[in-house]
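Q: Entry one of two.
A:
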Amino acid sequence: MQLYSVERKVSQPIEGHTAAFTQFKINENKKPSTLFSFAVRGPQGGKLHIIEVGMPTQQNQPFQKKAIDIQFPAELSNDFPIIMQTSAKYGIIYLVPKCGYIHIFDIESGTLIYMNRISIDTIFVAAPYESTSGIICVNRKGQVLSVSIDEDNIVSY
């Protein structure tokens, strides 16, 4: 991947399989920050990176970079992240590896909130599902899968 800064007119190569941009407001900040998240699987394992791009808005505290390990089941040693979408409403990242698992991460802390297999077949495309602030995916067999947060079962912490 290559990240290009319009402000500075420079590009930066980034090792990654999938990425997403999002506007995210940290609790103590007055304005949202532009965040770039990307995921990669290398010989040492998988990583999710969340960084702020561009200059922080005046009066905002900069976002603290995150580098989070991504857990892959041992029997899926060739699995790697292929899809990433974000939900600004819930402040989460949806990450889908090739072998059909869903990983849901909290943007601000980088904490893995949920992980489960949603398809035994390869998922090859996904898009934001605006009506639920979730994602909608299609697997190799043509099944359409929807993943979203159930607001009635959110536990405050």
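Q: Entry two of two.
A:
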Amino acid sequence: MDPVDREKTTFTASGQGLWQFKVMPFGLCNAPATFERLMETVLRGLSPEACLIYLDDIIIVGLDFEEHLSNHRKVLEKLKQANLKLNPAKCNLFRREVSYLGHIISAEGVRTDPRKVAAVKEWSHPRNVHELRSFLGLCTYYRRFVKGFFLIARQLHRLTEHKRPFVWSEECEVAFTSLK
């Protein structure tokens, strides 16, 4: 974090005086966007065929081992130049298949992560609009894997409309079960 911006993170700690962060803490409203911009800047020049970035998740790809190794070197060099460090315990290197942002990515393509899909399958019946919106949000994340998603979810989306009474109908039950 730029020293001139540290004062913006000042806080007190039970009579211990004033404290400031030296690095960007998560929880600040702009921290994710700022960190994403930082990572995009650090890895600028590397194509999506070399690596994909989402916050602190970087997936490095290659068509064969040599290209993959070359892309690893490029990414690591850029991180080193920016004085960014990796946590070895969180690194999965040279995998043919990785879990990334709720998906399994491999040479065969992209599919849903069974562990994440289990959360949808185990979801209990929504009792109110808030719970229904949470369920729909998770389902919408995986909509590309559900043929006719919007037709199936339409009845559930209607229940989330402003000032609409939350009445769980047979159509809602069918849609809910279909999405699960």
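A: Comment on entry two: The longest helix spans residues 65-81. Strands lie at 11-12, 18-19, 51-54, 57-60, 97-100, 103-106, 109-112.
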